[in-house]
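Work package 3, deliverable 3.1, input record:
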Amino acid sequence: MGAATTASTVDGTVGGRTIAERVLTRRNGLKIASLLVVFSMWELWGRANPFFASYPTAIAEAASRILFPEVLPAFLTTLWALTVGMVLAIPIGMAFGFGLARFRLLEVALLPYMNAIYATPRIALIPILVLWLGIAFELRVTIVILGAVFPIIINTYSGAKHMDSEMIDTGRAFMASERQLLKTIIIPATAPFVFAGIRIGLGRGVSGVIVAEMTAALTGIGRILISHAKYLQIAEVFVGIMLLGLFSLVLMGGLVRAQRRLTPWDDAERAR
Amino acid sequence: MLEIQHLNKTFSTAAGNRVLDDFDLTMRPGEFVSLIGPSGCGKTTALRIVAGLLEQSSGTVVVDGKPSNGPSRDKAIVFQHFNLLPWRTAIDNVAYGLELHGIPKAQRMETAREYLDLVGLTASASKYPAELSGGMRQRIGIARALAIHPKLLLMDEPFGALDALTREHLQGQLARICVERNLTTLFVTHSIDEAIYLSDRVVVMGVQPGRIIAEFKVTMPKPRGEYNFRAEPEYASVREEIWRLLEQQIMRAERVA
């Protein structure tokens, strides 16, 4: 505190530079400037096309009306399905990924299906899933799992499969049991791949749950988007979209932070 | 300490390619033996069989009176490319073998610190391998191997991936440690100078098939880094003889290839 006060002088300069200079030369400053420019242009363009488009001030006004009574509860509904789906998809995906890499029989028998399903749009499955599961919670959780589990499987599998055989030899030379090999070599070596899989899976999980909500379940954020779009309430639709965007930003930031914590060596490795 | 008899290794891939032909070697405790030879002479194959990382086609390996099939606690290996675990700090890498053997944490950390100190890396204990130089990484590789108190130390061209100055420095360190600790060491190299610097015996191997063609005793006092061993007449004569043999083998390999 004291240091900051003495460092800034009366004419608004800090360390010989004006405050505006300091803000702009920093990364955060650049981000704020970028936001200002993008939002101003959006505002101008939106006001010129008021019927089909919307603009930041209108969205803010809509948010003040519907954010707490309508959008946040819907968001929590969506978030709950997404969380349950991801919590199931991550261990299932890792188990299958390691299993496929470790056991030749599983690999030969199952890998073609994995690749086929991975490339198939899950949206195509929604009509059948509705027949099987109805349109309730289970449907949305299933869609999240189907979206997230395959990237996790495929990434875990390729990470574990294409491991440096010298690493395995090192473990064996120092008398690692199969279990110790898995714990001390295979899992840590695969962790960055698992994270990459989770990142892709999470993106697919979010889009899956929204589509399920829009087309079949008619609940959560998906319903907000559909129901307001029907009445051309574009600003209200954008409240939902922007909340999703913000959520994704927070989610990915959290994931990067978790990855740094859990695989601290990976940063050093990349910097090399 | 180590008795290898009639060791053969044939890789089934290239039809009947004999990489190791009737390899015999006996080492007494405290002895430092180098295997030297051109690429493809089977020196690394022999070392990996002794380490238990590769299975022989026939023949026996006996360590300390017990038949050795597969890895065991009696043997520790130092790899050419260090093979440190990137997700472990220096000290956790040194403690790796002890951890696998179920040594309690406090005890293995104490031992690891002792060996990190032996190779002069106490200050880097909590660094990851990616943050260390090649020479430092291999010193950790050596500390990791010594920390399990092996009866037999196996080294597969441990300084082959290092620059010349670092190499010379580590050779001196290893020479000193081996003498101080009376280690029994089987060392693979393709540097004649390195073999003479460190060994009591240099075993020269030939190609096609990979086999032992000659053996030289080196009698200069150890550790040899403490005086100018390269000025000794023994150095010059042994070096000259080994080089002649190896040159023949290299030409032979080129003719057949």
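The helical segments of chain B are 43-51, 90-94, 96-100, 105-118, 134-147, 164-181, 192-198, 233-256.
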